[in-house]
């Protein structure tokens, strides 16, 4: 009887959510595509002109740079740039503004005096940050998909070389004297399966265009902005410290994320990871970081907690010196050096200090505003509203939900694991079924329509269940979405488009190697002339435009720690970006899926292939 | 007769030293000797040798690479780097593909070092090591004998053919008997330049890849499988090639049966019987330009200046340091020296300004140029 009641309740709830889902979807998709005027500005990064009078705002949602009067907030100029700009900076002489456009792989060069676009240069795969050297001769561009730093001639834009960076290279900062360039990356560098993540700060000598050092960041995955003090003696990077080796269900024990800074440089003498959270309150997604001119304060934006943390540098350094052992996970530490938490707008990201350090400008990406803080009073003294749609759409509300840290004590939100709505390169122990059981690799969430069901075991037939009941039960622990919020969230997740594939020609043509691989992918007879059973043909399970039959199969990749060997067939879009592979991330590369984890040809007939042919297959898969 | 000539030179040198009223130190004698008429002036070195006794992880040194003030040594037990007077060793614990580092190459644009090992290919970039194997990447085989960097491409010679990694796109291209004239797939060495890439393929001669057209060509020993050299300067000296060096549009090729020089029109071959090459069994060759090259053999280190030869080694009989010079007429003069490379069996070499670094089977040698 109890079971029947429960079943009935679930059905009713499902129907209710389903109806809401339909309503939300209708609302979202019945609307025509937004015109430029209707696009949200989504301010991501900020710059102040050298004289401090102009505030440059990188509006990611509008594909624009807006130039504001820093005092009044009045928009003086709007400059269109490339698609999904992610970073910008002034040239050494201040006469040019460089903008990194992440989705069209370009850098826009703007004359700051006229506000005109002077040039558009190609710059690697997914440019995310751009910095010119002090000599004004070389431009450095961090490429998120390329995992590198492209080195361009600052006069012509000609690419001279690329430097190997961390995986997901994204943010660049030049030291005050121009002698060092620091690069961070948002996805962890590869480590052995089921070992702690590891990241780095890549240190470049810009006078030689060479990587000269890599500061290792143990236990860190997801590093965002780095700031260097004016005297060059103190560096600070904002980052995530995930605890992905223990069940995420233990959120109440604080076993999910710590939000930290890595502090380095001569003032510290070593690299130290410093927690930002408190024992019963977390400050999620530290993103932007700034150091006051006198080095007395460090400011950090928290994209998931809608606030700015203010740190007393002196107290922090004293605490570091008094604690030679690591204290990254000691959440009582922050009380010794955090002096304020200042509430700002939704999803605060980039920030910039006035020359005298008296004002701090913060870009609130998801409510199209800029908070102006008095650093003396640690309070918001002005909020600049950017022009954009008056109405907050379901899509926008969903995005706000996605980036907000909803979990117990504000520990984390969707975007902790889906960084910038992608993935995190980690494998998680999600459910409370014992330590080390049912390990799952995180998946990209772009272009999800037609890829249902969700979860590696295919247990969630809809995004409503995936984002709602499952997330609430296992992740948030004590927080539930109300129905409208859940609908908005699903609308947002379903709206995420697939990014351009950098390994496929713009005209869709395949290279000879890719074409050979396509033939292998679609073959029905093996090299011995034997028919390949339909169930063992690549294109059978990975069928359709997205490469999934939406069914579960046992392809022999299950491990002893898995509750089942049946796994949902993953879609293949943007496959090249999302290593490692298989349900638990045990295959470090596409090659390993077959060279290591397919000994009995259960995951497709591949053991008759030569190495050349396997390479061709991989080349084809990278075009998906 | 030869000994008499050497003694004569010695006497002459001694007389010059006395006339100058200076201490008769060996180095000075050597300097004066070079001015003696009839003895070609060839580079002289003072060799300082490194072994496990002074920091190397292993005495068996397969390869050496100079990057400015840093010197990398690929040994049988790890990759060692010498900097500021100290050795640091990278091992498999640091991520190195395998302990035996057979070959090294420098990406001069980025400073990254590529190390070919018996178990895969590693890139060392500012201390971080990324490793590619036949299981986790498109690398054709884990036994990597040769590597060369040109632009954004890394060219690799393996025990199962040649391959190329585009570091920008991550694409691997494999070259073997299926898509090149490679009769055997035991690729031993590679030398890449913007116009051409040459592979020395053990048992399959010399392969040439035209970077512009993407076409492969092959150079064979016109004597075929015949171990006798019937047609000496009509083509490659032997099919069992071990090393290749392409410089100034000239390709230098080493084999276990003599060495070859090809300028695009003509071949010229070197054998012990008619050149100053100390042994036909040559492990490595490095061209300096169209006319000059260094050879690493099983019987010492040799330098050819286009006319004359110099050989540096521990004497084969006594083990004492030895330098000999052979002029255009075939006259061999022994130069008194105090030092020599650590061993006769030479596996690799590289240059640091006018200095030379030599990888041997029993240590790494730093030849410090003596002006």
Q: What would the principal axes of the Cα set say about the shape of chain B? A: globular
Which class best fits the helix and strand makeup of chain A?
alpha+beta
In what range is the share of β-strand residues of chain A? 25-35%
C-alpha termini separation of chain B: 30 Å
Q: Please state the oligomeric state of the protein chains shown.
A: heterodimer
Please identify the top-level CATH class of the largest domain in chain B: Mainly Beta
Shape of chain A: globular
- Kindly report the average pLDDT value of chain A: 92
Tell me the fraction of residues in β-strands of chain B, as a range: over 45%
- How many domains of chain B? 2
Explain how this protein is built.
- The complex is a heterodimer of chains A (624) and B (371).
- With 624 residues, chain A is of the alpha+beta class.
- Among the domains of chain A are: 81-218, 7 Propeller (Methylamine Dehydrogenase, Chain H); 512-621, Cytochrome c-like domain (Cytochrome Bc1 Complex, Chain D, domain 2, Orthogonal Bundle), CATH 1.10.760.
- Helices cover 18% and strands 30% of the residues of chain A.
- Chain A contains ten helices and 32 strands.
- In chain A, the strands form nine sheets. In chain A, strands 1-2-3-4 form a four-stranded antiparallel beta sheet, with no helix packed on it. In chain A, strands 5-6-7-8 form a four-stranded antiparallel beta sheet, with no helix packed on it. Chain A has a four-stranded antiparallel beta sheet with strand order 9-10-11-12, with no helix packed on it.
- In chain A, α1 (2-29) crosses α6 (483-495), α3 crosses α6 (483-495) and α5 packs across α6.
- Chain A starts with a helix and ends with a helix.
- Chain B is mainly β.
- Chain B folds into two domains: 1-37, no CATH class; 38-369, YVTN repeat-like/Quinoprotein amine dehydrogenase (Methylamine Dehydrogenase, Chain H, 7 Propeller), CATH 2.130.10.
- Chain B has two helices and 30 strands.
- Chain B has helices spanning 2-19, 26-34; strands at residues 45-50, 61-67, 70-75, 78-83, 86-90, 101-106, 113-117, 120-125, 128-132, 144-150, 153-158, 161-166, 172-175, 187-192, 196-201, 206-210, 216-219, 241-247, 250-255, 258-262, 267-270, 282-287, 293-297, 300-304, 309-314, 321-326, 332-335, 346-352, 355-360, 363-369.
- In chain B, strands 22-23-24-25-26-27 form a six-stranded antiparallel beta sheet. In chain B, strands 1-30-29-28 form a four-stranded antiparallel beta sheet, with no helix packed on it.
- Chain B is globular and about 60 Å long.
- Mean pLDDT of chain B is 90; it is low at 1-35.
- Classes of the chains: A alpha+beta (624), B mainly beta (371).
- The interface between A and B is medium-sized, with 36 and 30 residues.
